[in-house]
Amino acid sequence: MENRKDKLLQLIIENYLETADPVGSKFLIESADLELSGATVRNEMRELEEEGFLSHPHTSAGRIPTEKGYDYYIGKIMKVYKPDNKIKNELGKIAKEDEDVLKKIAKQVAEYLDNSVIFASDLNSIYYTGISNLFSQPEFRDYAHTVSVSAIFDECEDRMESLYEAIGSDVEILVGKNNPFGNTCGIVAIKMGETGLFAVLGPMRMDYSKTVGILKLIKEII
Q: Which UniProt keywords apply (predicted)?
């Protein structure tokens, strides 16, 4: 895509990640990062929608990213977050403890990211925390959606087996149909040693940049 469209898509996605509200042209026109006319912004948004990067909820004048939009943002636009010294020191301190290090880190990361964390030392030993964080997200106001995603945890072993197969040697981001934990969610995961795996599960609208940065830090300190 053109750089101008990239910038628009970045602004829309990052604002939506923060607010969970569809993003309208008014916000973009008033953005200090853009020097575009209202007509240009509206035309570019319409083209992004026609190309499948955005969708237009019926109840709103704004747009939200599609799975294709997230994939493009993650692969082409996103800059990985660098954890600040507070996070580095807190996780570093836990990493030096003698017992249940990854379980303690999992709980801390679930709090940082306000999502769920799943950790497996192998497929026979799976631990998860932060489920209430996940279901407190705006996406789960819909009862049927909550029931559908909660049922995933009853099949956690099978889902984790698929996740193991999908993860390479670096941090992996799986969105929508590529995510074994459900096509309405996103997951960021990294392998730990020979058989371990550490993953953050959230709605598709999750802060992928911050999540990747924190998982890379965990890989460094463990």
A: Repressor, Stress response, Transcription, Transcription regulation
